[in-house]
Amino acid sequence: MPIQEAEKIWHNGKLVPWKDATIHVMTHGFLYGTSMFEGVRVYDTPHKGPCIFRNLAHTERLLYSTKVYHIRMPYSLEDMMEAQREVVRENGLKSAYIRVNVAAGYGELGPYASPAESDVSIIAFPFGKYLGDEAMEQGIDVCVSSWRRSAPGTTPAGVKAAGNYLSSRLITMEAKSRGCTEGIGLAHDGTVSEGAGENLFIVKDGRILTPPAASSILGGITRDSVMIFAKELGLEVVEQAVPREMLYAADELFFSGTAAEVTPIRNIDGLEVSKPGNRPITSQIQQKFFGLFSGETEDKWGWLDPVKI
Ligand code: PMP
User: Fold this and answer.
1) Does 221 contact ligand 1 (Cβ within 6 A)?
2) Where are the domains of the chain?
C-alpha cells in the first residue's frame, strides 16, 4: 500500500514537516529491532467529530511494550494521548490511521544496551479499507500459512514489537502467492494463532471461539471490543485452543483488528465458509462496531476520544 503523506509528523515532542522526520542509521531500534509501535484509527463521527478509537488502550499497550523490552519512554500516558490528538488536529485529518513508534535511540551498541535517548514519533495519514473496499461485505479469501507464530518463551507475541512483523510478512507473502488476501499463522503446537495482523474468531453453532493468549496472539484491542459486543448481544465467547480443522467446520469466520476492523472470511484454504448476507453473527458484531462511529451504538465505555478540531 503506498504511503499517503500528510503535512506534519510529531517527532520527539515537536511537529516537523513530513520529510524532516528522519532517524540516524545507527539508531538502536533500526539495528536490533528494539522498536515498539501502535496502529490506531481515527473515525469521523457525526456526533463527536473526528475521534481516536480507544486511544487509552492503545497507549497503555504501547507503554507495556516499551516496559517489556526496557526501552526508555520519556513521555507520559497522557502526553502520548494528547500528542496523537494534536497530530490529527494539526494535519486537519478527519479520518486517519495513526502510527506511533517508540524505538531505542542513538548512542549505544549491543542488543542489551538501553540508549539514554529514545526516538518517539507519531504519524497520522489518510487510510481506507485495509483488506480492500469490498472486504466488509463480500469477505476475503484466507489461507493457513506453513509459517508458525513465535512460541511462548521466544519473542513475546503479546508485545507489539516491530520485529514480530517479520513473521507477519512471511505469512502474508505466502498467502498472496496462493491467491489469498491474508494468511493465518499456527501456534507452536499446531493450533490456530491469528492472522498476520488480525485476531481470529470462529463461529460454530451460535457460539464464538477465539484463540487465547497462550496461542501466541497479540491481545487485540478490536478483539477486546468484539468480545464486549458479543456479550452485550447475549452471545457466548470462549477463549480456547482451536485445532486447524475447526476452521473448516465453522459457520462463520472473521478477523478483527485496527486496520482490518471486522472483516468476514468467505473462504479458507479453498473451502467456502459463508456467503454474503448469510453471516448473522458477524453482521451483528459489525453493526455494533461500525455503529460506534455512526452514533447508533452508544459509547458506554468512553472509547471515542474526540480530537476537538
Ligand atoms: N494481531 C496482530 C499480529 C496484529 O498486528 C494486530 C493489529 N494490531 C492485531 C492482532 C489486532 O490488534 P488490534 O485490534 O489491537 O489492532
Assistant:
1) yes
2) 8-125, 135-294
